[in-house]
Amino acid sequence: MTDSYTKAVNSGFTKTLAKKLGLPRPAILRRFRAGDPLTVGPVLVVSDDASTGDADRIAQVLLGWGLDVRRQPSDDARWGAVLLVLTETRRPTDVSAAVLATGSVLRRLATNGRVVTVSRAAADGDAPALAAARNGVDGFLRSLAKELRAGATGNGIVLTGGAAVDSTSVLATLRFFLSARSAYVDGQLLPVGPADAAAPADWDRPLAGKVAVVTGAARGIGAAIAKTLARDGATVVCVDVPAAGEGLARTANAVGGTALQLDVTSDDAGRRILEHARTRHGGLDVVVHNAGILRDKLLANMKPAQWDAVIAVNLEAQLRINDQLLGRDGGEGVDGLRLVSLASTSGIAGNKGQTNYGYSKAGVIGHTRATAPLVAARGGTANAVAPGFIETEMTASIPFATREVARRLNSLQQGGRPVDVAEAIVFLASPASAGVNGQVLRVCGQNLVGR
Ligand code: NAD
Fold it and tell me: Measured between alpha carbons, how far is 103 from 95 in angstroms, rounded to an integer?
């Protein structure tokens, strides 16, 4: 679970040696700690001419967050972030000055710096030049993220459906991308729609007063999710199978929450979750479908039990639980739910030996998109997080050579930590993220696998 190479190339003699030999030197990523500044230095806000008004509006908000905001590139700063606002761009030729201004400061972007684009999604009926200008941002951002060094990341906010640039949902996404909470999110463009909510009283405790359930919370990523939800104010119900009771009790005690021993594949799992949350904590606001299993085999050697178990835990359980929580089983269901499911980059790019797992995780992406409008009708959202290589007991058991290749094959040249996945989940589960619905957020360091 430790990446000793990254530690070695960041300390003492081995750091100098790695530099001399030209070896890859993955940076130590900055992670969120309460009280730390939002960015590691001043923020440069640039825009094309037509988007100046939106850039001004965002700059005002950043000033209100206490950031050092500048509107002109200069040589005297070690930049913490560059924000490139392209919301009103009409033609590809409009963006040149703004992207080149961004380029002019990249050599002075601080370690763990950030580049964030804000643009609008191409939509049906757009003139070809407008659609080209809007879609161009996608290829620009993904390419730029691959050029950034020293733990810096590039991510984009894509406004859809006329979302306002200073809506709470856009600002929540901007805060996430600028902050250390998104340490292992890189090269992602996240659509944000017009649905909105009030800003939280405290951006560092966005889940204050909320009740959250995490399945598979006894260990690994699930335990990190429970701890991060609790850190940010939620009362947490930890769910896992009876066989994992010891780990489950440990997590529940650590977060001051309650433990619910439950196999998520049981017929009434959703009803039991709801009943536990209501009777013990007075309601239910967030459900994180994290429980998942692997039964890797080439399809030619796959036994029925191996296929069926993975589909049952990773996919069918989520479908059944959601139906019960949304009252699609004839029950009452719950309003305002935030559902977040664990997908995987294996469900996006595929992985040898994982036809069952790949099916289940791609299925999660499918049901998340289909659930989004159903839950929105009841005031909630459904999103998925797709982790890449995360340092857990599961990935520690991969043979050394395969593991080394897998963990380096991304723009940040290292594996993520469970807390990186958890931070993305807290962001999606927070009331302020109301405009993010039906999306898949990759937490993969811009893993080079794709399709
Ligand atoms: P893990 O094996 O360490 O933990 C999974 C937990 O789920 C365990 O505590 C287990 O007891 C529980 N669980 C299994 N079946 C259950 C059931 N039927 N009912 C209730 N609980 C059950 O796995 P992890 O690495 O922490 O992964 C967590 C999630 O993240 C999974 O959905 C996994 O597919 C996904 N994921 C992990 C990685 C990674 O690199 N580790 C990458 C992509 C996606």
Answer: 12
Atom of ligand 1 nearest to the CA of 221: 26
Helices (H), 191-301: 220-231, 245-254, 269-281
User: CA quadruple 158, 162, 164, 165: dihedral positive or negative?
Assistant: positive
- Residue with CA nearest ligand 1 atom 41: 390
Q: What is the H or E stretch that residue 308 is in?
A: helix 304-311
Any atom of ligand 1 within 6 Å of the Cβ of 244: yes
| Residue 342: per-residue pLDDT | 98
* Residue owning the nearest CA to atom 1 of ligand 1: 220
Q: Which residues, at least 6 apart from 175, have a Cβ–Cβ distance to it below 8 Å?
A: 38, 65, 203
Place of tokens 């994982």: 354
**What mean pLDDT do residues 416-432 have?**
98
Atom of ligand 1 nearest to the CA of 387: 43
> Taking 80 as the threshold, does the pLDDT of residue 12 lie above it?
no
pLDDT average, residue stretch 231-239: 98
CB of residue 422 inside a 6 A radius of ligand 1: no
371 CB within 6 A, ligand 1: no
Please work out whether the CB of residue 266 comes within 6 Å of at least one atom of ligand 1: no
| Active-site residue set | 357
Ligand 1: nearest atom to the Cα of 263:
19
**Among candidates 163, 150, 378, which has minimal Cα distance to 284?**
378
Strands 381-387 and 286-289: unpaired
- Ligand 1 pocket, residue 215 CB under 6 Å: yes
Contact 190, 264 (CB under 8 A): no
For the Cβ of 214 lying below 6 angstroms from any atom of ligand 1, the answer is no
Q: Per residue in 250-298, pLDDT tens?
A: 999 999 999 999 999 999 999 999 999 999 999 999 999 999 999 999 9
Determine the atom of ligand 1 nearest the C-alpha atom of 293. Answer: 14
Q: How far is the CA of 213 from the centre of ligand 1 (A)?
A: 15
Q: Over the stretch 131-172, which tens digit does the pLDDT of each residue have? A: 999 999 999 999 999 999 999 999 999 999 999 999 999 999
Tell me, in angstroms, the distance from the centre of ligand 1 to residue 388's CA.
14
The DSSP secondary structure of 18-54, one letter per residue, reads: HHHHT---PPPPP---TTS-SSSS-EEEEE-GGGHHH
Q: What domains, with CATH codes, occur in the chain? A: 31-192 (3.40.50.720), 211-443 (3.40.50.720)
